[in-house]
Amino acid sequence: MSIKVHNIQKDFVVLSPEKTATVETADSTLYQRLEQNYQGFKGHEMIAAFEFESDWDTWEIHPNGDEIVMLMSGEITFVLKLEDGEQTVDLKESGTYIIVPKGVWHTAKTTVKSKLLFITPGEGTKNAAEP
Predict the structure, then answer these.
(1) Which of 1, 40, 106, 128 sits at a 20 to 30 Å CA gap from 80?
(2) φ, ψ for residue 107 (rounded to 5)?
(3) What does DSSP assign to residue 101?
């Protein structure tokens, strides 16, 4: 067996329900492959890194599990639509993270280049201009 080194900014990781890790290249066909090869992502998680320089233009929700989002660099504000109202959470220090609860609409705002690491339960994820 040969162990390879990967870069999370180029190669994402899909964890199966059995916790087997599969490397997926982060390219323009990634989400199409995820849908085709992972049974609608049922029971799978994706570990990925993205960089943002401006506010997200959509909201998202993960109905089948909590999402973990860790700040790797920069600073970012998450906006969450909770049952009792909207809450903002600031991440300003590398290594800090939030756990977005299952079924909570969320978006993010930033004015500086910020890099985030995501551990996302992908099954049933929805995006919308407004929650």
Answers:
(1) 40
(2) -145, 175
(3) P
